[in-house]
Amino acid sequence: MRKQLLIVFVGLLLSPSASGQSPQVRPVVHVQADLSEHWFLPVWSVTNVRGKLPDNTNLFAGLGYRQGAWWVEVMVQRQWGTSRNEWMPDIRVQARPSSKLSVFGEWAYPISQKAHYNMVIVDYHISSRWGVGVETENLHRPGRDLLGAGPRISFPVFRVSQSSLNFAVGYQVRPREKDVVRFYLVFNHRMELKR
């Protein structure tokens, strides 16, 4: 069953509707610096390499809270590389309701626009090496919302102590834009600040 799911997903990525797309690459670095058992300082760097569209880089910093199998981060984001180089508040949440299920959500609010951005990723780990899931990424704004949703696959590249590197591929169907094929490379690191 796992191999069939992988074959179907790769077939979708290579289908005629996807082959005309410029793939996007999103390298991500995420560091959590522990202040105490529950509180930490989160820092993110997210770059969007978007082929025919302008690339952009986003830096985030703020305060996070962790409890058991979930965390929440409230941050300030700065984006460079688009026509609007702007600041925005950003909230990120991740939870693991079970050992196989992972849920991630993000909400951002551009200060210079009457708009808000959200992204939700749900991954189900079918083995220790593979996850399948869905992702949705949306920009809500006056007039015309930009909406996207579709399947994704993911797998860990490595995990060493408090560091991990994960790879994922997502295909988003976008009714008002060209569909998006995106490759994610996500580095996570957790550290303890000296007290």
Written description of the protein model:
There is one protein chain. This protein is mainly β. The protein has a single domain (2-192), classed as Porin, CATH 2.40.160.40. It contains two helices and eleven strands. The chain has helices spanning 2-13, 16-19; strands at residues 24-34, 39-48, 56-67, 70-80, 87-95, 101-108, 116-125, 131-140, 146-160, 163-172, 180-192. An eleven-stranded mixed barrel has the order 1-2-3-4-5-6-7-8-9-10-11. The longest helix is centred in the N-terminal third of the chain and has 12 residues, at 2-13. The protein is globular, with a radius of gyration of 17 Å. The model has no long low-confidence stretch (mean pLDDT 87).
Which SSEs are present, and which pair or pack?
Blueprint: H1 2-13, H2 16-19, E1 24-34, E2 39-48, E3 56-67, E4 70-80, E5 87-95, E6 101-108, E7 116-125, E8 131-140, E9 146-160, E10 163-172, E11 180-192
Parallel strand pairs: 1-11
Antiparallel strand pairs: 1-2, 2-3, 3-4, 4-5, 5-6, 6-7, 7-8, 8-9, 9-10, 10-11
Short note summarizing the structure:
8% of the residues lie in helices and 61% in strands.
Structural key phrases:
11-stranded mixed barrel, mainly beta, 195 residues, globular, Porin
Instruction: Tell me how many strands there are.
Output: 11
**CATH-defined superfamily:** monomeric porin ompg
Radius of gyration, CA atoms, in whole angstroms:
17 Å
What is the CATH class name?
A: Mainly Beta
What is the level-2 CATH architecture name?
Answer: Beta Barrel
Helical segment count: 2
Strand content: over 45%
Overall shape: it is globular
| Share of helical residues | under 10%
Q: How would a crystallographer describe the biggest sheet? A: 11 strands, mixed, barrel
Structural class: mainly beta
What is CATH's topology name? Porin
Give the termini separation: 49 Å
How many structural domains can be distinguished in the coordinates?
1
What order do the strands of the largest sheet run in, or round the barrel if closed?
A: 1-2-3-4-5-6-7-8-9-10-11
- Which quaternary structure do these chains form? single chain
H/E series, N to C?
HHEEEEEEEEEEE
Q: Calculate the mean pLDDT score and round it.
A: 87
Stretches where pLDDT is under 50 for at least 5 consecutive residues are: none
